[in-house]
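Aim 2, interim progress: modelling of the iron/sulfur cluster-bound target.
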Amino acid sequence: MKWSNSAHQAMRRCQRYFAIAHIMASATARDPDRREAYILKQLQPLANWQGSLVHQVLASRFFADNILAGRPVDAAALTAAAQDLAHRQFAFSAARRYREPGMTKAAAGDEYCALLEHDRGREISPEQLAVVHAKLGLCFQNLASQHQLLGMIQAGSDHRAEFSITFRFGDRRLPAATATLDLAFLRADGQPTVVDWKAGEGRTSDYSRQLLVYGLAIARSGLWPGLVPEAIQLYEFNLLTNRIRQHRMTAERLDEAEDFVYRSLVEMDALVGGRAYEDLDLSEFEVADKPTTCQFCNEGPLCVRLLEEAGRPAEAIAIQGRLW
Ligand code: SF4
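Predicted structure of the complex, ligand included:
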């Protein structure tokens, strides 16, 4: 398996969640528990859905129509594209098509969506849907208002959306690390820039470490020989709150990011040691310390069942009490 920021966060949250969602989960495995782990991993609450819709439209329509074609941002057209996608994804999720045998994200294309509320049999009202649609409109209006950032993007070159970079440290026994950048390009001065889109409500979330890992991936990609850390520009743009934050890259911060990823890789290696799922024993992985971690865990129902089947009913009951 490869290291990623989300794998690191999963490992920190709960070892057992990390094992179920990042090692056991498989879209195509014949083992029904592995398939269930995959489906549960895809579930997202309605409150987070606008974020994935915005990302999908930015990686496709915005990228093709506004960046590659060099046209100004048309907020109404992007909103219409996002709302059309929302309608199609909602229908897919409401019909629980994500649970059809053999259904994967790759097979379904952009319609794939699995809303937590649908999977748990909870109703989503027209009013709740209208809020999502309104937020989509606000995100693209905010995007269109950011003339300075858009000018810099459009004056750049070599644009790449959803750009995946894999890099390794000197110790070849450690897993490779990977980072997927929402948008990367060269500024007019030929230096690399990363823009990370956000669309959540939280005003206090700190994504500086995530952005610095993106800077590290750029520095280690080898695509730009002779690059100095200070030349890498990293922007986090929350389209919902219309807030842009630049994360400064320096040699010291690059060292910090390297140290962070390296220590996390060593931790992951100690936990998994290069073993495939078939060679792992799930009981080696500890359950979460905090009840709130289980409360918001997608994999909760599967985790509880597997604990019961493994003859650990007391832990299963304890975790069941933490689920929402
Ligand atoms: S339900 Fe709790 S213990 Fe089980 S995987 Fe999720 S967070 Fe970990």
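The two ends are 30 Å apart (CA to CA). The pocket of iron/sulfur cluster is lined by residues 14, 16-17, 20, 287-288, 293-294, 297, 299-300, 303, 319 (CB under 6 Å).
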